[in-house]
Amino acid sequence: MQDAAARLLAGRTSVVIAHRLSTLDAVDDILVLDHGRMVEHGSRAVLAADPGSRFSALLAAAAYSDDIDQAASGLSDLAEARRDR
Fold this sequence. Notes:
Elements: H1 2-9, E1 30-34, E2 37-42, H2 44-49, H3 54-84
Antiparallel strand pairs: 1-2
């Protein structure tokens, strides 16, 4: 999906609405909306590096969520391995 989107968007100005932050890895600029109002605008690198930015907070929350998902998956695997003994 990501490769197809990259080919489709290459050389074009596009508006991408993303629910997954990984979708924004290849964009030039990010615009963050809150209740229909623009609250941030900038490059991914600048917004991600700013600890006070909403985008940075979203990245941190996503990383935390991924860590929890990975931990839960590991616990599930461990429980399954113990049952199989």
